[in-house]
Design a protein that fits this description.
This protein is an alpha/beta fold. The chain has 15 helices and eleven strands. A seven-stranded parallel β-sheet has the order 1-4-5-8-9-10-11. A hairpin with a 2-residue loop joins strand 6 and strand 7. The two termini are 28 Å apart. Residues 22-31, 141-157 form the Uroporphyrinogen decarboxylase (URO-D) domain. It catalyses: uroporphyrinogen III + 4 H(+) = coproporphyrinogen III + 4 CO2. Pathway: Porphyrin-containing compound metabolism; protoporphyrin-IX biosynthesis; coproporphyrinogen-III from 5-aminolevulinate: step 4/4. GO terms for molecular function: uroporphyrinogen decarboxylase activity.
Length: 350
């Protein structure tokens, strides 16, 4: 395997010196790009796009053809794992992801098992295809939803504003929720390890809904299971360490505990002060983030000022991966993304 042309992202994840702050964007391949919309139209549906390794490769590379990004991220969806468990994933127009068979009764929950990873072969084939297409330009990030975030969708049957079913189960029947989380943790561990075996050079756990939990409940029902996943991951591949990123949206209150979970990088949403976060975690982990995605609706000049502000907050020294504090909006102007990347790369004293 030849060396990477640009390993800045991987070195920053491991708190090694870099010439500049590397940057990638959550949801960097998506609907804000006209070329993505064209490819999705050819695929016929979002799931059709996810299930085609060739098309997934195409859209993964689209933002790298436009922008000087320091990493690619696998194009897929966090709900592929529960879909492989037989819950029947589909996407309702204007309503987002739904499950035909949500986990609503004890018998269905007790019958839940870790899926055969062959059912997710299309994801691993996409990873291998993307690695080949990248030709070692930049690293490839694999990902999964966290056990708790997956459970939220599996129990609610789709997205939710209140998570009333999940919370009711948590308080009434914590044993059932723990069973779901145990199965999910086993599945996520196997899923990420298969991505690493296929060529992913870093992985991220998206704990999108961990922040809706109360203090104490977050530690019990989300963080504990992410810790289990991380403990089971392959951490060396192709002669180098595979960094693990944990991103809990709304997790700023528990930053020190997240930094102790075994990950290499903690992702931050936009509500956290980057400089204070650095003081709180010390030298334990690198930090990723954390521009407010809605800042990209402002003018390029304002975007540049916000980038400079965040880089000043972090200060000198290694261990920072620039990113948004959540996924990029589908309504973002690609020219504003270009302005963001120019601003990040213009400051090279790291």
């Amino acid at each position: 395997m030849k060396p990477l042309e640009n390993d800045t992202f991987l070195r920053a994840c491991l708190r090694q010196p870099t010439d500049y702050t590397p940057v990638w964007l959550m949801r960097q391949a998506g609907r804000y790009l006209p070329e993505y919309r064209a490819t999705r139209a050819r695929a016929g549906s979002f799931l059709g796009l996810c299930h085609s390794p060739d098309l997934a490769t195409e859209v993964t590379l689209q933002p790298l053809e436009r922008f000087p990004l320091d990493a690619a991220i696998l194009f897929s969806d966090i709900l592929t794992v529960p879909d492989a468990m037989g819950l029947g994933l589909y996407f309702a127009e204007g309503e987002g992801p739904k499950f035909e068979c949500p986990l609503r009764d004890e018998s269905a929950i007790r019958a839940l098992t870790v899926p055969d990873m062959d059912k997710l072969r299309y994801v691993f084939d996409a990873v291998a295809s993307i690695r080949k297409a990248l030709n070692d330009r930049v690293p490839l990030i694999g990902f999964s939803g966290s056990p708790f975030t997956l459970a939220c969708y599996m129990i609610e049957g789709g997205g939710s504003d209140r998570f009333s079913r999940v919370k009711a189960m948590l308080y009434d029947r914590p044993d059932l929720l723990h069973h779901i989380l145990d199965i999910n943790a086993q599945a996520v561990t196997a899923y990420l390890n298969a991505q690493i075996a296929a060529g992913a050079q870093a992985v991220q756990l998206f704990d999108t809904w961990g922040g809706v939990l109360a203090a104490g409940k977050y530690q019990e029902f989300s963080l504990a299971y992410m810790r289990r996943v991380i403990a089971g991951l392959t951490r060396e591949a192709e002669g180098r360490r595979v960094p693990v990123i944990v991103f809990t949206k709304g997790g700023g209150l528990w930053l020190e505990e997240i930094a102790d979970c075994g990950c290499d990088v903690v992702g931050l949403d936009w509500t956290v002060d980057l400089g204070e976060a650095r003081k709180r975690v010390g030298h334990k982990v690198a930090l990723q983030g954390n521009l407010d995605p809605n800042a990209l609706f402002a003018s390029p000049g304002a975007i540049e000022r916000e980038v400079q502000h965040l880089l000043r907050q972090y200060g000198d020294g290694p261990g920072h991966v620039f990113n948004l504090g959540h996924g990029i909006s589908q309504f973002t102007d690609p020219e504003h993304v270009a302005a963001l990347l120019r601003a990040v790369h213009a400051i090279r004293s790291v």
